[in-house]
Amino acid sequence: MNALRERANNMKKIFQINIIKFIYYNYLCKKVKRDKGAKLIPYRGARIELKKGACLILHANLNVCIGKVKGSHEEAYVQLHENSVLEVNGHVMVAYGAMIQAHPNAKITIGQSYLNTRATIVAEKEINIGNDVLISRDSIIFDSDFHPVFNEEGERANEPKAVNIENHVWIGVKAVILRGVTLHEGAVIGATALVTADVKEKVMISGMPGRAFGYIDWRTK
Length: 221
Known about the structure:
Elements: H1 2-15, H2 19-28, E1 32-34, E2 40-42, E3 46-50, E4 55-58, E5 62-66, E6 76-80, E7 85-88, E8 92-95, E9 99-102, E10 107-110, E11 113-115, E12 120-123, E13 126-129, E14 133-135, E15 140-142, E16 163-165, E17 170-171, E18 176-177, E19 182-183, E20 188-189, E21 194-195, E22 203-206, E23 211-215
Parallel strand pairs: 1-4, 2-5, 3-6, 4-7, 5-8, 6-9, 7-10, 8-11, 9-12, 10-13, 11-14, 12-15, 13-16, 14-17, 15-18, 16-19, 17-20, 18-21, 20-22
Antiparallel strand pairs: 22-23
């Protein structure tokens, strides 16, 4: 009975895939470089834009716009601007309403991760995400302020800085991760936390601005 139920669920998922986009991005699009067996799986509502010189590198599957309620018109977005790179190193699930965006010449690398509804990742320079990373609803990861600010000497005071998220990190609902931050392995970012500085291994951060609440060890189900 369980095997039949699993087979039925798998068939439902297949019917939710945009077959035309699946064929184009996996077999025809020269901007997609993928290992044998790795695929871009665009479910209905997936919006994918790869501009001139952009490159999507797949070492594992990238699933875009999963989990929609039947009849919903929600979309999910993967947008790579000119000469940018998105490298997928582990199985990645992008829920409906979520966005991954790389500005010109930027690079995003991402391992086995889950981006929940309306999670947003935008890079002007570089964002690196490890394996076993959970990115909750409405959370934001930026490596830039995206508008230059200058000091009295006319020098830019807010250059983009790489964001690094190590393995086994949990980013809570509506959390904001800003430029230059490293989240070390096992860190937990509490709901609505604003993170502007590095977070140590297995430490929980909460509040605005975020402050540490000591050691924590968390596990997925």
